[in-house]
Design brief:
The protein is α+β, with helices and mostly antiparallel strands. The protein has seven helices and seven strands, in the order ααβαββαββαββαα. The protein has one domain: Roll (Hypothetical upf0131 protein ytfp). Helix content is about 30%, strand content about 25%. The strands form three sheets. The chain has a three-stranded antiparallel β-sheet with strand order 1-3-2. Strands 4-5 form a two-stranded antiparallel sheet. It has a two-stranded antiparallel ribbon with strand order 6-7. A hairpin with a 2-residue loop joins strand 6 and strand 7.
């Protein structure tokens, strides 16, 4: 950092730095006041999506972990851009990569700007079953704040309507806009039963880097996380959001 400004021109976060804060915490289970979705509720989510749009080809727009860990078969992958949406660590996370005592932040698409990512075309066949698997992977708390939505994305071959997971600003886990320093300090400290938030961030930015995608905000965050990790004490994490 020079004159208080992090340089985001290169990837500062490394596996060695991530290893310094990597740990596994006990799973605290659903947040009080929330519950796990039932099979029927997942079925209703899928039915609602298919009532809005029944695609000939099922496309999924990936901007975070679905890029480096899609967990589904696909027949085609192409670069794409979602205009009117941007990546944002805007969802409070008290499981998975955070805890009740020290919540993490989860990435979602939020309104405004644009987002370059990857578009997947899933195999033809049972779209309802494919959507059900995606809902179970991406949607956690009930009521949810990360929700499935059909959006328009641009590709070199033309516009495509695709499923994406976006932030519901009225949802209970919506954290709103935070500055880069706040987000970086949270991600540098937080971990859960799926591992650290720093690991999630590193996997995301390194994969984006390999694809030639530069997200200015994420590059600034990873630079600050890299600077923060050597000086933090995991036994006395800072107050969340500071």
């Amino acid at each position: 950092m020079k004159n208080g400004v992090a340089h985001a021109s290169k990837l500062h976060l490394t596996p060695e730095l991530v290893a310094m804060v990597e740990r596994i915490e006990p799973d605290p289970g659903p947040e009080p006041g929330t519950s796990e979705h039932t099979d029927e509720e997942f079925r209703m989510m899928v039915d609602n999506l298919l009532s809005e749009y029944s695609p000939k080809d099922l496309w999924v727009f990936a901007y975070g972990s679905l890029i480096w860990n899609p967990e589904f078969a696909f027949e085609e992958r192409r670069p794409a851009e979602a205009k009117g949406w941007h990546r944002s660590f805007c969802l409070t996370l008290t499981r998975w990569r955070g805890t009740r005592e020290y919540p993490a932040l989860m990435m979602a698409l939020d309104r405004g700007g644009s987002c370059k990512g990857v578009l997947y075309r899933l195999p033809s066949g049972n779209h309802a079953a494919q959507l059900d698997l995606l809902m179970r992977r991406e949607i956690d708390a009930n009521p949810p704040t990360n929700v499935g939505r059909w959006i328009s994305v641009q590709t070199n071959q033309g516009p495509v309507r695709a499923l994406a997971f976006v932030a519901d600003r009225n949802g209970p886990a919506y954290a709103g806009k935070m500055d880069v320093i706040q987000v970086a300090r949270i991600l540098a400290h937080a971990a859960g039963h799926w591992g650290s938030s720093a690991q999630y961030l590193y996997r995301t930015v390194s994969m984006l880097e390999s694809l030639g995608i530069r997200d200015r905000n994420l590059w600034a965050i990873q630079a600050h996380v890299a600077e923060t990790i050597p000086s933090i004490s995991l036994s006395t994490p800072p107050k969340w959001g500071t």
